[in-house]
Design a protein that fits this description.
It is a single chain. The protein is an alpha/beta fold. The protein has 3 domains: 161 residues, Quinone Oxidoreductase, Chain A, domain 1 (Alpha-Beta Complex); 104 residues, NAD(P)-binding Rossmann-like Domain (Rossmann fold), CATH 3.40.50.720; 124 residues, Rossmann fold (3-Layer(aba) Sandwich), CATH 3.40.50.720. It is built from 17 helices and 25 strands. Strands 3, 4, 5, 8, 9, 23, 24 and 25 form an 8-stranded mixed beta sheet that branches. A 6-stranded parallel beta sheet has the order 18-17-16-19-20-22, with helices on both faces. Strands 11-10-12-13-15 form a 5-stranded parallel beta sheet. The protein is globular, with a radius of gyration of 24 Å. It starts with 6 loop residues before the first strand and ends with a helix.
Length: 534
């Protein structure tokens, strides 16, 4: 058996708004199906702040109810659902240093990137996840079970990576992959086959059911929606323009459900209160038609949310960590005819965005405008809008600048249960498709990994600061208060390193700063930091 210290440094969330830096957390034993990962680095994500705020009410902190032999969960020492303390951290790169005798997919010495969303492990309203109901990587060592990281279909949630890139570059793949996933998610423009269909009001759905048959159809009058409270449906078709009825019916949408509002010449008299958080986390979608055939509403749902030829793109909040990634993806996409506008409220952050993305946009011939919307508000006419600020009112306002046929990506992680008032009439008339996604798939991470290997992107352009365990409190506060200038990478093996912006390394670690490449992180700089900080 591999020798380890008796204990380790670890971050643990122990309650709502409560975390500790534990300098003596026991290192879990490795069972027959398990592997010990020695963490090289792990990014801090805004999603970590949601776990800190919500703790045991977070949908990914609840108990796993399907997808694995439930008796096996008791054998996994890193499984901590409910109110049990948990170690966050779902953006890591690690090295496998021990494997149990029944592990077959991985070996000692493998360097791996963790895909944290273990979608085959179902909780009541979400899925099992590394860094949530299973301990994450904001600790020196973490045990994972092969039955969690290899699905019943054989999909692996540990991705092999080479020794070439720095730990920071690899650790930053996960957030870049969530960006990639928001464009790649396949949308549904028809009824869910074998699902539950709710029809509200009087109208015909034969055009929908002819090709895609639900397993059950429930029909109610507009004034009977309240009788269905607590139920969930995969599709809800509303033959009505009454906003109160639409709002009640929207509460019946299940995960990945679609609502189609059939106006038949009527007009919705006011804005409609919709759960924008569920658009992001539960993938609910809204469509509709000003005519009488619900199939016309489903028909304009795009295949996915990707950029299209000649799109006029606006990224609201582009100077934040995720905004930089979205903007860089756009200017390196190769989609013909794109123009890009990036906005923020801080001139300093916008200058940084211009410095990072501007030269790439110019090289690729993509028109790029950087706008401070506190002085120059955006006007109508954009065909692809991404909102990177978790404020429902901003997503609602983004509808106003969307042209006909626009895609509106509510990317910012607004918690489920957060409502905003939306111009649903305008959304239907102009066929504005509002989407949101949470997390990423293995395929998204592989796409980003390939782009790194091919030199298309450098994920470290979004790296703002590095820290050891001592700086975690300052780091998570800067994420919560949005004072960070980009992503923060934690090196758990460095116990005493405080939060250090890359741009300030010259003051404390000049030998590290000397190895940066035009201010960007390098593997050589990382090795020097690890050597000096120890």
């Amino acid at each position: 058996m591999t020798e380890y210290p008796d204990s380790q440094y670890a971050i643990q969330i122990v309650g709502q708004e409560q975390f500790i830096v534990n300098d003596s957390k026991p290192i879990d034993p490795v069972g027959p199906h398990q592997m010990m990962l020695r963490v090289e680095a792990c990014g801090i994500c805004f999603s970590d702040t949601k776990l800190l705020h919500q703790f045991d009410t977070h949908p990914r902190k609840s108990e796993v109810v399907a997808g694995i032999d439930l008796d096996a969960l008791a054998e996994i020492p890193s499984y901590h659902p409910g109110a049990q303390p948990t170690t966050p951290g779902h953006e890591p790169v690690a090295r496998i240093v021990e494997v149990g005798e029944k592990v077959t997919h991985f070996a000692v010495g493998d360097r791996v990137l963790v895909q944290a969303d273990w979608k085959h492990l179902r909780t009541a309203k979400s899925n099992g996840a590394f860094g949530y109901n299973f301990d994450g990587a904001l600790q020196e060592y973490v045990v994972v079970d092969e039955r969690c990281v290899v699905s019943p279909t054989g999909e692996e949630f540990l991705i092999h990576v080479s020794d070439g890139p720095s730990a920071a570059a690899v650790g930053l793949i996960e957030p870049w992959a969530t960006v990639e996933g928001s464009y790649a998610w396949a949308e549904r423009n028809h009824l869910a086959d074998g699902g539950r269909l709710l029809v509200v009001g009087e109208g015909c759905v034969d055009s929908l059911t002819a090709s895609h048959a639900p397993a059950e159809t429930v029909a109610v009058a507009c004034d009977e929606v309240d009788s269905l409270a607590g139920q969930e449906f995969d599709d809800v078709v509303v033959f009505c323009a009454d906003p109160a009825v639409i709002e009640k019916a929207a509460l019946l949408l299940g995960t990945r459900a679609v609502m189609c509002v059939v106006l038949d010449g009527q007009t919705i008299p006011r804005k409609v209160s919709l759960d924008i958080g569920r658009v992001h986390y539960d993938f609910i979608r809204f469509c509709g038609t000003t005519g009488s055939d619900p199939a016309d509403g489903y028909a304009w749902i795009p295949a996915d949310g990707d950029l299209r030829e000649n799109d006029r793109c606006a990224f609201i909040g582009a100077a934040g960590p995720m905004g930089v990634m979205h903007t860089m993806r756009a200017v390196t996409s190769g989609v013909p005819g794109l123009s890009v506008v990036g906005t923020d409220l801080s001139d300093e952050r916008l200058e940084s965005l211009t410095r990072v993305v501007g030269p790439v946009a110019e090289k690729n011939g993509v028109p790029l405008d950087i706008v401070n919307t506190s002085t120059s508000p955006l006007e109508y006419g954009y065909t692809h809008v991404t909102c990177l600020v978790p404020v429902p009112a901003l997503v609602s306002q983004a509808v106003d600048i969307c042209a006909d046929g626009a895609i509106l990506n509510a990317f910012a992680g607004i918690p489920a249960g957060t409502f905003g008032d939306f111009d649903l009439q305008g959304i239907i008339e102009r066929r504005i498709f509002m989407l949101g996604t949470s997390g990423s798939d293995v395929s998204d991470m592989r796409t980003v990994l390939r782009k790194i290997e091919d030199g298309v992107i450098d994920t470290t352009i979004s790296l703002w600061a590095v820290t050891g365990m001592a700086g975690f409190g300052d780091a998570i506060t800067s994420v919560i208060e949005r004072t960070s200038g980009g992503k923060i990478m934690v090196f758990p093996m460095l116990h005493d390193l405080g939060l250090t912006p890359v741009g300030e390394l010259e003051q404390e670690y000049p030998q590290v700063a000397a190895l940066l490449n035009d201010g960007l992180w390098t593997k050589e700089a990382e090795e020097a930091l690890l050597a000096s900080a120890r």
